[in-house]
Structures are given as structure tokens and as C-alpha cells.
Amino acid sequence: MTKNQFDQVDLFKALSNEARLKILYWLKDPTTHFDTKRQAIEEMDEVGVCVSLIRDKLEMNQSTTSQYLSTLQRAGLVEARRIGKWTYYKRNEQLIHELANFIETNL
């Protein structure tokens, strides 16, 4: 992994928060962790999970949830997709895989 692909300090800072780690864990298998009655399974797999479902699962307010998601997005760990007035988040599996390889080889 090169310095151009991600900022290592920002990435590890993003991972240093329990709530952000939970978000990443939940997004790994969204149909297990989020209410599929409120958002279709196919939609979760294709576009990600609606921010309102993440907020409800975290049991935090919209502002705090948005800050956590923004930190994860800046670090490259999640990708956001806006559809209408809704924003959906899913993991950046490529970067997470590269991070795992970086840790295994370099740390």
C-alpha cells in the first residue's frame, strides 16, 4: 500500500473509535445487522445501508452518526452514495483488504 492510496494516520485514527468499528463490522454483513423490513436486502447489497438505519442501530443522534460516517469516508473505509434525499453507506472492501495486507506485511 502506498502513501498515495491512503493516509495511514487518518485511517488508524478512524479505526480508533468503538462506534466507528461497530459501523464497519455491521456493514460487513448488513442483512444480518440491519432491519431488512425498512430497507430491502438487494438495496443493502447494491447501494449500501441508509444512514437512518445506522443511526438507529448506534442509538445516537443524526449529527454524531454523520460525524462518524464522515470520518470513515475521509479515511476511505466507507463509500457514500446519495440517492434523492437519502445517503447510503457501504464498506470499501478493496481498501480494507489492502489495509489487512499492509498490517500483515509491515506491522
SSE layout and pairing:
Elements lengths: L7 H7 L3 H11 L1 H4 L7 H7 L1 E2 H8 L3 H14 L2 E6 L2 E6 L1 H14 L1
Antiparallel strand pairs: 1-3, 2-3
Helix pairs in contact: 1-6
Describe the structure.
The protein has 107 residues and is α+β, with helices and mostly antiparallel strands. The protein has a single domain, classed as Winged helix-like DNA-binding domain superfamily/Winged helix DNA-binding domain (Arc Repressor Mutant, subunit A), CATH 1.10.10. Helix content is 61%, strand content 13%. It has seven helices and three strands, in the order ααααβααββα. It has a three-stranded antiparallel sheet with strand order 1-3-2, with helices on both faces. Helix 1 runs antiparallel to helix 6. This is ArsR family transcriptional regulator. One of its GO terms (molecular function) is DNA-binding transcription factor activity. Keywords: DNA-binding, Transcription, Transcription regulation. Pfam families: HTH_5.
Summed up, what is this model?
This protein is α+β, with helices and mostly antiparallel strands and 107 residues long. The protein contains 7 helices and 3 strands, in the order ααααβααββα. It has a single domain (8-106), classed as Arc Repressor Mutant, subunit A.
